[in-house]
Structures are given as C-alpha cells and as structure tokens.
Design a protein that fits this description.
This protein has 316 residues and is α+β, with helices and mostly antiparallel strands. It is built from five helices and 16 strands. It has helices spanning 18-28, 91-100, 163-173, 225-237, 296-302, and strands at residues 8-15, 32-39, 42-51, 60-65, 78-86, 106-110, 113-119, 125-130, 152-159, 177-182, 185-189, 197-201, 214-222, 246-247, 252-257, 263-268. It comes from Paenibacillus donghaensis.
C-alpha cells in the first residue's frame, strides 16, 4: 500500500494561563479562535483551536491551557519549533510588531531560508518564514493586515531521540520526500502548499519533558475516514500499533508514537469546525459533544472565563 500524507493537519500543545494564551495567538499573532471546547479526556480543561478564518487543515494550532500544570522542557520526542508561513515581504512588519509587544526575536537561517524566531508566553518556540505558496489569509484582527497575516503552518522542526528511525518513518511510512540536508537538519516536503516543510534535526536530542510550553503531538492529514482506516493498516504494517479511531468531533484521529519518541496523529480533513457553528460565529460559544451536554453548567463553572481582545502596545 502506498500512502502519502499531504502535510500537517494540526499541532497541539500545553500552555498555562488561558487569557495569556488567547492574547498571544489571537491578539498578537492575529489568528482566529475557531473553536472553544474542552479536553474530552479532562473536561475541566479547555481545548482551544486557532487557525485561519475557517480553521482549514494546515493552519490549526490547538491548546490545553493548564494554569496549575508543571513546566515542561522542550527536547527529544517533540516538535521543537512550530513554523508559520507569512506572505513574501512580511518579515519586516512582523519584526516591528513583535518588538512593539516587547517579544524578543532572533534571526536565524536554516537550509537557505531566513526565519524570525521567538517564544510565546509559555516558552513554546515559534518561527515565521516568508513563503510564496499558500493562499493569503482572509482574516484580519488586532492590527494585522491581510497582506501580512499568517497563512498557516510553514511546517515544523522535529526533535528526535533517534533521528535515523524518525527519518525512515517520515519517508517510508508517511511518504514525505527528502529534498535537502544542511545546517544540521534534514528537510522533507509534502504535496500541500501549507504545512508542507518538515525539518528534522539530524542529531539525537535528549528526551524532553511534557508540560506547559511543550508540544503534545503533531497531526498529519488524511483526506477522509476511508483513507484513515487505510492509514491505520499502513502504520501497523510498518511495525507501529496505532490506536483505534477517536472521535474528536471536528475530525477523527488515530495516534502512534514513532521510534524517536514523537507522538504522531493522523487526522481526517472533514468534517471541520463549521459542523456545529455558523462560519461567521466560530469560536464564540463553548461547544460540547452530546455526551457532555447534560453537564454543561458544571463544566462551564469549572472553566476560567476569557475574552478575545486587541492588545494595546505598551508604552516605554
């Protein structure tokens, strides 16, 4: 069986304070909150989804805000850096914007591309890179104009405890094409025009520790439920033990941990985030699956309220 993922579906991370999380990703980065729901395995914790206007696969970063959670340590077995793509000519705008919010930025070069590198309020590593490919954003918020708005993921940097085996999984199991090697990284490409460039650190990275400020998993795209079942059989044929299909309301998911320690998910593109909210009302209401709806009052009472707001620039 030959299968090739088209790229990243979403990336999920642990963070701390929910309002600070929302302020950073909506207020500063200008992403749209497309879904406000809960962690189905821990309903006292939000599960927030940020992306482009419709929350398309390849644009979605999701968070479990955990105000009392332990601090994590970025390392092997994790996505080390999440990369966002912005339109060509936009890095100067973003450098000035991040400086205005007193967010330290460094400029880095990797495999002939220039990046702005910084961290969110919890220490998650973020990069911005200019890319021609990928549709322009149709969502503008907080002073980020359409022509400079984040398009979605440029890709991700993977930290593996066993990069040789992770490289084999990316190419043989997930069907990615190796296109370059340099600066201590191996670069892979998928067929999508967003979320399509994966850089694997070529040397082993000591195991990280999960907690706030770290990525929990990275999800790869499956076109539909039928292909996802094919993926399950395919992954199993490569020696992994994928989970049964999990209903995540807005996509279905299977999970497996590759040999370098990174938790991989394969998620379906449909049904998407408009299945239970109108497209122009995404993210405005706490959405619960039917089995939690009878407990709404208790669940809402256990969650910290927050708001989507524009963030004023601090005057020095």
């Amino acid at each position: 069986m030959t299968l090739q993922t088209s790229g990243i579906h979403h990336i999920t991370a642990f963070v701390g304070d929910v309002q600070r999380n929302v302020d950073f990703y909506a207020g500063i980065l200008g992403l749209r909150l497309v879904k406000k729901t809960i962690n189905f395995d821990a309903p006292e914790v939000y599960h927030l989804y940020f992306g482009n206007e419709g929350g398309a696969p390849g644009t979605i970063i999701t968070f479990f805000p955990w105000s009392t959670g332990r601090k994590g340590r970025i390392g092997g077995g994790q996505v080390g850096v999440t990369t966002y793509a912005v339109p060509a000519g936009s890095l100067a705008f973003w450098e000035q914007r991040l400086a205005a919010y007193q967010i330290p930025v460094t400029k880095v070069t990797r495999i002939s591309e220039s990046y702005l590198s910084f961290a969110d309020y919890d220490g998650l590593r973020i990069e911005l890179v200019e890319r021609e490919e990928g549709a322009l954003s149709t969502w503008s918020f907080g002073g980020v104009p359409f022509e400079h708005a984040i398009k979605g993921f440029g890709g991700a940097v993977l930290y593996s405890t066993d990069p040789a085996h992770t490289a084999d999984t990316l190419s043989r199991t997930l069907g990615m094409e190796k296109i370059a090697e340099g600066d201590g990284y191996i670069r892979y490409r998928t067929s999508a025009d967003i979320g399509n460039i994966i850089d694997l650190k070529a040397t082993p990275v000591p195991m990280g520790a999960g907690g706030t400020g770290t990525v929990h998993h990275i999800a790869w795209r499956a076109v539909d439920d039928e292909q996802q079942l094919d993926w399950g059989r395919h992954v199993q044929s490569h020696g992994y033990q994928p989970t049964p299909v999990q209903d995540r309301q807005y996509f279905n998911a299977i999970y497996f941990r590759e040999e370098g320690g990174i938790l991989f998910e394969i998620a379906t593109d449909p049904p998407g985030f408009a299945r239970d909210e109108a497209p122009d009302a995404l993210g405005q209401k706490l959405m619960l699956p039917t089995w939690f709806e009878p407990h709404r009052a208790v669940i809402e009472g256990n969650l910290t309220p927050f708001e989507i707001r524009e963030i004023e620039v601090k005057q020095s």
